[in-house]
Amino acid sequence: MTNKKDKVFGTGSIVLLVLIGLALIVALIRYFFGLGAISNLSDAYPWGIWISFDLLCGVALAAGAFVTAAAVHIFGGETMKPLLRPAILTGFLGYILVVLALLVDLGQYYRIWHLTIYWNLHSPLFEVGWCVMLYLTVLALEFAPMALERYKLQAPLKILKRISIVLIIAGIVLSTMHQSSLGTMFLIMPEKLHPLWHTPILPVLFLTSAIAVGIAMVIFESTISMRVFKREPETVAQGKLAIGLPWVLAIYFIMKIADLAVQGDLGLIFEGSTASYLFILEMIIGVIIPFFIFLSKGVRQSTKAMFNGSIFVIAGLVLNRFNVSLFGIKAPATASYFPHLMEIMITVGIVSAGIMAYYLIARYFPVFSEEH
Amino acid sequence: MKNVSFLIDVTKCIGCRSCQVACKQWNQLAGEKTVNTGTHQNPPILSAKTWTLIKFDEFEKEEGVNWFFTKIGCMHCEHPGCVSVCPVGALEKTETGAVIYHDDKCIGCRYCMMGCPFRIPTFEWDKALPYIRKCTFCYDRLSEGEMPACAKACPTGAITFGDRDELIQEGKKRIESKPEKYNPHLYGEKEVGGTSVLYVAPKDADFASLGFPVLGERALPTWTHNALKFVPGQIVVVGALMSAFYWLTKRKMKNKAEPEEVKHDE
Predict the structure, then answer these.
(1) CB contact set of B80 (below 8 Å; sequence gap of 6+)
(2) By the CB < 8 Å criterion, does A362 face chain B?
(3) pTM of the full predicted structure?
(4) How far apart are CA A327 and CA B117, in angstroms?
(5) Which of A139, A252, B151, B175 has CB atoms 3.0–4.6 Å from B161's, for a disulfide?
(6) Which of B53, B101, B110 to mutate to test the interface with A (most CBs of A within 10 A)?
(7) CATH code, domain with A65
(8) Which CATH number describes the domain made up of B4-221?
(9) What is the mean pLDDT for each group of 10 consecutive residues in chain B (266 residues)?
């Protein structure tokens, strides 16, 4: 853990707390006066940044937990172990933040549990909801050892250790299910979603890009926490995890281009529309540039270079999810949408809460080192 | 009657908006403050308080203008996207053919609005606990053997209420008997797998220019079903693969580390 002489609440923490406070005020306005009072959402744009960023990006960016767990425990990448606990913490917090955002976004937020009693097996969102509920439970149990070690509770620790591999495999299965089903959600709108993004393989593309961004997020988050907590860089572990990244991106690229070719839509890339520019931007930033960055062995031996590379993957993923869920969707010609300041404040407050929680938990719990 | 349906004849509509008013009255929908947008179309769009609306479209022709009035509202699809995507089954395609909404199940996720190719479901944006709102085909009237309020109120016969199969025949008959009057397309017969609200339009108006989306014949839920049917297999395959890799890794490590492990154990 960290040097206890450091102040717990520096300037950064105070800024975060203010942002969280502002989001709470906005949430109160929403709970009294409705979604119209704090958002520019409308019948023409029922989904805005909360779905595009907080839900779709949030879930994808939290994929580091299952990707690292698989790398370490399933494929025996022991050298990557130092990255696992921080990745699980990021994932756990990430999914909690997704639920927090939904508690603002859902009209009948207090009925979020209705998924457990009213089933519609035909709905991709039903599957996503169930997977998120179950995976959140798995992540809580994967996080629990950090809390149990802190308080030296040996008995439950033993039980968790015994079932840990079951949890890890369950986590991987649940993750591949809902990461892909988030893509399935957009298959219902073939006439609304631009053909550059609407494809029957969208679920596979969502899963593949989530794996890529999961790796990138672990590199990103471990580099930052190394700086914040003044720890030795985990360059070797990061480099090992990054070996797979260019190949995941290559597979994504080939699937995407091959699919467009099969559908006869390759020409759309160069049609000169806003959609085509967004698509080109997304592919260059998120796929092509980081492919070459992470292909280099020199990069994989430098935390700084990998950190810079990870920003491309993350930015590309964010743009992709916005393209699929917002920019690429046809709306009535008379309508327009730009998020209201208060909508952005909710998102900013939720992200701030995540950072704050990560900071405090990493400070007081054995996140960076397994204690024996 | 097996499957309730409307045949809406745009050539017969005079734009009186009796249907619009009748809908508001029967469903007790509040009035809306609107602004003058330069047409008689009022309110300008559907909302949680306006479930059906007469669209006013003006098109210039060689001499003068064509003025068309089109009633819009829920199409009550044969294979509704909204019903298939709702995670809690709050929307239902009833046996009558009407697509209805259950307030008590809804979580307010608005996926139905995204999943509707006609952008029909609306949301109560001004309420703290908002619901989805849309035309119910006057489901409460249907169950009493009454026809929907809009059809009852129409003075010109622009809204014919009846069985879907019969109304398809009726629509085709009208188009065939007066090809000089009607557009040959019976909208809703095949769109997204068929809708319970059918339209015939005047010859000099195509449906796209009247604001109807140009849709394929494929039922939308088949898109998501085709992906979701892989999920059970995905669970088995991913679960089995991960278990197998885990077993292999463990065996490999055990073989490699066995001599050393003895020393490390306390």
Answers:
(1) B91, B93, B99, B116, B221
(2) no
(3) 0.94
(4) 17
(5) B151
(6) B110
(7) 1.20.1630.10
(8) 3.30.70.20
(9) 90 96 97 88 94 93 90 97 97 96 97 97 97 97 94 97 96 96 96 97 92 96 96 96 95 76 48
